[in-house]
Amino acid sequence: MAKRVDVTVIVNAHKEGLIASATLKSAQLSIAAALTQGVQAELLIVLDRPDQNTRDLAASWLKSDARMRSLDVDVGDLGLARNAGVQISRGKWIAFLDADDLFGKDWLWKAYQAATLEPREVVWHPETNLYFGARPHVFTHVDMDDPEIDPAAICNSNLWTALCFASRDLLLRVPYRATQLEKQIGFEDWGWNLETMANGVIHKIVPGTAHAIRTKSTSLVSRTTQAGCLPYPTRMFREILDQRSKAAPTD
Hints:
Elements: E1 7-13, H1 19-36, E2 41-48, H2 52-64, E3 68-73, H3 78-88, E4 93-98, E5 102-103, H4 107-117, E6 122-133, E7 137-140, E8 165-167, H5 168-173, H6 188-198, E9 202-215, H7 220-226, H8 236-247
Parallel strand pairs: 1-2, 1-4, 2-3, 6-9
Antiparallel strand pairs: 4-8, 5-9, 6-7
Helix pairs in contact: 1-4
């Protein structure tokens, strides 16, 4: 009988090399902490056009941990690589981690606990993000159940990072879209957040959790910003304006 898998941790790797070792260690520690709470998790490394150092490092980790699997893809796109990982995942829930970032130790079991107690369709995010590297700073996520939060704010800037926790069913139904820098379409995580909201999905935080995110002088985000990109358009902003116009008092 196949072993139950509650959560699949998808680590997206490209050319991180030895840096990915700290990422995999953080995922391993979070998986171990989840196991103490009765949560079964697997780790799936998605290698998208990796360099040899990254491939070799992944191979060494795969030999040392039976809970790890790998998938080779040739898409050259972070969003599409995530989709490929979701397709072969075994867990009911998916947790994304980029191969140069770090999970908090309690992230997986606390996110799983929050998700299984919530009857609504929700995408879960850590409460806090600790950015280190080229531009160290702290970024706190917002919770859509906070009455002071205006959902229209996400039309101006992204409110949540890509390292979310969501159901496999949702990710299959609303996959990430490809980045097209030549058409000035990018920010796959921002676009996915918009599209899920347009489909009635709530975005919430898991209190007391954090991720550590590496910032680099050159990254996909910086290249996307320099190209003047925006996410794929959705109907969400138009519907918000329509609802507000209908609710506005008339003379």
